[in-house]
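Quick one, T. Sequence first:
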Amino acid sequence: MGSEGASQGRSLADWLAYVERLHPRTIELGLERVRSVAQRMGLALDAVVITVAGTNGKGSTCAMLEAILMHAGYRVALYTSPHLIDFNERARINGVPATDAQLVPQFDAVEQARGDTQLTYFEFTTLAILRLFQQQPLDAIVLEVGLGGRLDAVNLIDADCSIVTCIDLDHAEFLGDTRGKVGWEKAHVYRTGRPAICSDPMPPQTLIDHAREIDADLWLFGRDFNYAGDRQQWSFAGRHQRRNSLAYPALRGANQLLNASGVLAALDALRDRLPVTQQAVRQGLATVELPGRFQVLAGRPSVVLDVAHNPHAAAHLANNLDNMGFFPVTWGVFGAMGDKDIAGIVGHLDKRIDHWLLVDLPGARAARADELRTRLDEAGVRPGPERLVEVHATPAAALAAALERADTNDRIVVFGSFLTVADVLASRRTASGSRTPS
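Structure tokens:
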């Protein structure tokens, strides 16, 4: 190990900066490198593992699983990515983010084990967090796949149950340019003989075919589980369990019942290993929290935060905005990565957003605000007497500009990349005097 990677006295921030420099590419899919290091580390998880993949809905699904299982009395770890403000958010143990003191030794262990093996930031940090989980007395571990499924570092773990949420186009350069190709990649989180949940109402045939080829226990929405609901409550029906008179999840959005039904299907499939009472389901759904997923901040004008960064998520955001009721004017604060389908995102929202405030984001992948303005112009969204299209240096600056001009009855939607929402949340925390966990 070179002096740059020496662990003596290194803080978590030092480690993260070091890991970012280790590999020339941010994303390099493949399990050979990460598996070889995991084997040298002796990595093994002694708990029921649930892996969650999908284009959108992964974070909500993971959060609901964590909340329900904790209310059922289980010791639960949750791994998600990316984080919004602090890296520590990625590793939660019994609902609490891991501390720097818990994480730093794990980075040292990965560094010692990897030798000359190059690992990406995601691979290195995934191994560090999995090793932390290995050291904890846990009953259940929920793992969110980072990108795709087949070649994602999380997939080196053989899950006891796997969930694939919705399937749509995103990261086409890595996963393919059709739903069939994307579905095939994500189906590789399934395992032979183990529950394989799919909560997409119309899964591509490639996913079904792969599950059958490996003889996974495939649970399809509409065939093996379903939900029904009215304005007051909803009910779930699975192969073995029915859960009636449920309150709607605390997470906002019309798509959350689909995510919740996938969660309850997984718990139905694991009922013998992780029995969960009706009360635990009710309490978990009532108390679950997930920042940045159609999160409506207190106060007026209404401020909505949503990490809708692809067309499928933008369509859900548009539907959820429609269900909020009437607002005279809607202001949109938008920032995105340059490799995203900007026209597809804008197409779902251009009729719902009156004024566009476009923002710069950090990092080489991010689209500059001026580039976004050009992309919006190409999509037919141009400034005029009734529409502003502006550029701002940061999401927080754009939100401040919108708050200054918006009427109390207006609405402001901050959306796009995780970095867009993260900047706003971080600026609010700074203003309130909160501190980073240590």
